[in-house]
């Protein structure tokens, strides 16, 4: 049952479960709470089932692109449907511009009953019943302390639903604390407008609504703030990186299992990898055959990146030493061979590669070890900043260090940027330095 202060139930499960479910209301055969929730609503809102199926088809199409895209759209569309049905008491096809404007007001001042204190999975698998019951702690909004990492793990209970580990709120979906009440971050607001707009485009194509009102509503929005300020790329300083690497090397002398963590952080930094590009996913498992040598003797790493695109990342001589080191630790030959199906990252127990969550946990541990050592050595400010770091900071760190010594086109290709403009905008800081230099001499 839903809590008295929250009148709704979750609708769509995590990606790995969702993609296996049939289309139509049959999707809810193993989700009795959600099925009964829709049945009750249908008594007063005839279009509820049509809304559910339309959203389901929309999410099904995006589930083929990437898990992250699916999760972002799932979060926003599900929240929109629950609001339409339980707050406005209308099906989506009945909503008018004034109603939708009310929704974006609602996003910035949701009732406390809609806000959870932490990320939890939507459904709990009940093994004896073979059913997925709604988690009474789940809410469409989450409020967290700013210092808490969104990579913190959630408990898993059954292998069949282990993928629900991805059913967590992205930082963009988290309400930010204020002195009075709550607010949605600017990036979360932009994501909400974008996702709902794409959903309406789908509804137009399906002849469910006549047009998409979101662009007009977005243009007049009082909530979107245009950001033209100087961007600070989140990356590790030379001191922080040195502490992370050296601390891990010392730990590896005591516990050889840390060789895997050393290899992970070296890959993320030196190969400019996103964490997903190093992790085991339904469509891709990084293997040693993906480290390959061309006819000129150059080594490359084949990465499966954003947009379902495969790219080859150049492997430096310095990185090659870490490849040798890790392979030696695993009892492998110095160089990988063509067709080597051995996972690039090996679990301590069981087969297969490491998931994004497992990699993030190892990197977080590495940062924490370096934090304590920096605090002990008197680098308090640097240590506290390191505690805020995420795995993505390693990608930014490597690229920021290398951008001054490599051609922009080469950097863009290795980073997987479709445009050199993206690489230039994100990593080249010379214009800002020049602006600051010329600005210092101004007279009052």
Structural key phrases:
three-stranded antiparallel beta sheet; 45% helix; globular
Anisotropy-based shape: globular
How many angstroms does the end-to-end distance come to? 66 Å
The count of strands amounts to 9
Considering DSSP H and I runs of 4 or more, what fraction of the residues is helical? 40-55%
The biggest sheet amounts to:
4 strands, mixed
Question: What is the compact description of this entry?
Answer:
With 444 residues, the chain is of the alpha/beta class.
List the helices and strands and how they pair.
Layout: H1 15-18, H2 32-42, H3 48-63, H4 67-88, H5 97-108, E1 115-116, E2 123-126, E3 131-134, E4 141-143, E5 174-177, E6 182-184, H6 186-205, H7 214-219, H8 238-254, H9 259-270, E7 291-293, E8 299-304, E9 310-314, H10 317-329, H11 356-376, H12 380-386, H13 392-402, H14 408-415, H15 420-427, H16 430-440
Parallel strand pairs: 1-4, 4-5
Antiparallel strand pairs: 2-3, 5-6, 7-8, 8-9
């Amino acid at each position: 049952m839903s809590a008295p202060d929250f009148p709704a139930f979750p609708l769509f499960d995590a990606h790995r479960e969702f993609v296996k479910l049939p289309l139509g209301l049959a999707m809810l055969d193993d989700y009795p709470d959600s099925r009964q929730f829709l049945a009750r609503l249908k008594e007063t809102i005839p279009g509820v089932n049509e809304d559910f199926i339309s959203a389901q088809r929309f999410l099904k199409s995006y589930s083929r692109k990437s898990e992250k895209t699916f999760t972002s759209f799932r979060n926003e569309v599900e929240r929109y449907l629950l609001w339409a049905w339980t707050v406005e008491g209308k099906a989506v096809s009945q909503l008018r511009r004034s109603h939708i404007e009310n929704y974006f007001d609602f996003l910035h001042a949701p009732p406390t009953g809609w806000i959870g204190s932490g990320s939890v999975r939507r459904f709990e698998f009940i093994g004896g019943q073979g059913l997925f019951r709604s988690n009474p702690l789940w809410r469409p909004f989450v409020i967290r302390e700013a210092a808490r990492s969104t990579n913190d793990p959630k408990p898993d209970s059954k292998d069949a639903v282990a993928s629900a580990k991805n059913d967590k709120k992205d930082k963009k979906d988290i309400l930010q604390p204020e002195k009075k009440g709550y607010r949605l971050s600017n990036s979360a607001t932009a994501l909400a407008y974008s996702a709902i707009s794409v959903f309406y485009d789908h509804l137009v194509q399906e002849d469910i609504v006549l047009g998409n009102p979101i662009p007009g509503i977005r243009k007049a929005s009082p909530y979107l703030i245009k950001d033209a300020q100087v961007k600070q790329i989140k990356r590790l300083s030379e001191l922080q990186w040195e502490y992370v690497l050296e601390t891990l090397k010392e730990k590896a002398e005591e516990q050889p299992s840390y060789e895997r963590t050393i290899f992970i952080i070296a890959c993320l930094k030196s190969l400019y990898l996103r964490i997903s590009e190093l992790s085991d996913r339904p469509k891709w498992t990084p293997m040693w055959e993906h480290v390959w040598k061309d006819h000129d003797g150059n080594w490359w790493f084949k990465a499966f990146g954003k947009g379902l695109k495969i790219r080859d990342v150049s492997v430096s001589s310095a990185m090659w030493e870490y490849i040798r080191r890790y392979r030696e630790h695993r009892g492998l030959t110095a160089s990988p061979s063509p067709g080597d199906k051995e996972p690039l990252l090996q679990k301590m127990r069981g087969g297969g590669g490491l998931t994004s969550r497992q990699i993030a946990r190892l990197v977080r541990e590495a940062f924490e070890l370096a934090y304590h050592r920096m605090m002990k050595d008197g680098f308090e400010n640097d240590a506290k900043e390191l505690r805020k770091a995420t795995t993505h900071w390693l990608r930014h760190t490597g690229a920021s260090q290398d951008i001054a010594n490599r051609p922009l086109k080469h950097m863009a290709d290795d980073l997987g940027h479709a445009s050199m403009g993206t690489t230039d905008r994100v990593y080249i800081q010379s214009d800002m330095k020049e602006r600051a230099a010329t600005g210092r001499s101004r007279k009052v």
